[in-house]
């Protein structure tokens, strides 16, 4: 399944291209074999390798070439489902617990970036979620009250304050603090380079053929040879996972653009991450070289768009929406793409042990917060693999 089409921006930001292929042969045995070399696989390998485990990462394509290369790089503790909505769905205690996990994951992503030798353009930002309609102003106020009740950093702007602080007028806005932006492609490559230095074996263009769980190991045959591991961790992104019939997920597609470089972004308060209350929503951010990345116009179609004219149509629509918010900025499209993304039925990622195969684990960050889910999931799975009790495991388990 092809996960994106169009002209991607992030791969153009690497100063060189390289292959990840371990010089060593496949080891006789690994503690963990991770299947998938995108954001989830890289973060899982990073987290597990810090525990002294022997790790291999195998991807059927090049590393970071799937949905991660189309990722727009917004890192937020808020989710597509608001905290007060999630509380109504699963209970207030569990909803707050999940939001706290996401908040902690954003912090952990920042710490991870600081350990890498490559600059991955991770910058801390606040987020501005504006009310798309008058009716949604009350929804944002309710969310603000819930966030403040549980100690999350947030402010609420009325219409006049929005107009004073930004070059557009909206009925209200919810401001949250402690979020971040990142260049996801540079981030993954920085992690993989770090992993190579730590002795993690990386195998690109490696097709997994069969997986057989035995009493003491998992035996995996592949296009380059046989792997033996104590545990297998699937970080397959939006490719169809082996457990696909057991979870409630759907694959849709979205569109994104990267604009020209903009000389003056002073009208954009603190270069905040911006999104809105309507669904599907427009979201936008700035880049290290003063571009604007924006996305949205989600469609209930699993395949990435192949029609270049349709990608152009959607890209121009996104640009029009950005230009409405920032009418004085001279904007044009330099990169445009469409990509598949996964969502779950209950707005939570699927992270945990296979219901009946105790040596196999899944890190499936379905939802608009995939990188954050990948980070929190890597720590949750680390605990499960090491036999450490984790109270969040029940909330995100595959057979919930």
From TrEMBL:
One of its GO terms (cellular component) is cytoplasm. SUPFAM superfamilies: FAD/NAD(P)-binding domain. PANTHER family: PUTATIBE OXIDOREDUCTASE (PTHR13847:SF201), SARCOSINE DEHYDROGENASE-RELATED (PTHR13847). InterPro entries: FAD-dep_OxRdtase, FAD/NAD-bd_sf. Pfam families: DAO. Gene3D superfamilies: D-Amino Acid Oxidase, subunit A, domain 2, FAD/NAD(P)-binding domain. This is FAD-dependent oxidoreductase. Residues 31-383 form the FAD dependent oxidoreductase domain.
